[in-house]
Write a structure and sequence with these properties.
By secondary structure, this protein is an all-alpha fold. It has a domain of 138 residues: Alpha Horseshoe (Serine Threonine Protein Phosphatase 5, Tetratricopeptide repeat), CATH 1.25.40.10. It has eleven helices and no strands. The longest helix has 22 residues. The N terminus is likely disordered.
């Protein structure tokens, strides 16, 4: 049960922010407040629901304590359930429901309730993948892959190396231009001790890196790039430490 607090924190792939992340917290809170105001003005608007559901994930991710994290996540969950009651075939609705469930599970871990939420997360991510696997740069495939990669395996939870490989590779193939997809796959391949596969993935990442820096820009992407740059450097360093050579050499 103690391990739940560790691996649940990784399920929604939160960016690694610097210690002085108050700016990101303030931005997330401001976006949440605006999204909530817009949603309350029209609770039947799918666009407003999507905006608030996404903002709930972002602000919950940066919450300074689990009480606040759970409160934001429950807001997102309620919004998504209301949304899906009207539009059950909404891929974004299922996707953001799963993301908010992940944040609630993180807040409630370690507990049996958190483990039950993980099972619901899996179902919702699968529903999103069936409806539109391309949404959010193959987001449903990406998050399913991370879920299976990070979670403990049977009988404790849903973790599975086979399923993780299937979905991580699928995300990387569907949206190879999105750095997160290649980074997730490379991290798994390094952990699985697959140097040749890792080197191939890093080659794709390196080739697409300049274009990504041009295409994924703006204030909303600042936290992503802090995370992506740190993880890319860490992967290269860990590979060199383990195999005494640079990837691809």
């Amino acid at each position: 049960m103690l391990a739940a607090a560790i691996w649940l924190a990784a399920l929604t792939v939160a960016p690694a922010l610097p210690a002085n992340s108050q700016l990101f917290v303030e931005r997330a809170q401001k976006a949440f407040d605006l999204a909530q105001k817009n949603y309350l003005a029209d609770t039947n608007s799918a666009a407003a629901a999507r905006e608030l559901a996404r903002a709930s994930v972002d602000v919950a991710d940066l919450a300074t304590n689990n009480v606040m994290r759970a409160e934001f996540a429950r807001t997102g969950i309620a919004v998504c359930r209301h949304w899906l009651a009207r539009e059950s075939n909404s891929a974004p609705g299922h996707y953001y429901l799963a993301m908010n469930l992940g944040k609630l599970a993180e807040a409630e871990a370690p507990s049996l309730a958190a483990y039950r939420l993980v099972n619901e997360m899996e179902r919702e991510f699968k529903s999103a993948a069936e409806l539109d696997v391309h949404f959010d740069y193959a987001g449903p495939a990406r998050t399913l892959g991370e879920l299976y990669f990070q979670a403990p395996g049977w009988p404790f939870s849903v973790g599975s190396k086979r399923k993780a490989r299937e979905w991580l590779e699928r995300a990387a193939a569907l949206a190879p231009e999105y750095p997160e997809n290649q980074l997730n796959l490379a991290e798994a391949q390094l952990k699985w001790r697959e140097p040749q596969a890792f080197a191939a993935t890093m080659k794709i990442l390196d080739a697409r890196w300049p274009a990504a820096k041009t295409n994924f820009t703006g204030v909303a992407r600042e936290a992503d790039w802090l995370d992506w740059n740190a993880r890319r450097a860490a992967l290269t360093a860990e590979f060199q430490k383990t195999y005494k050579r640079a990837p691809g050499s």
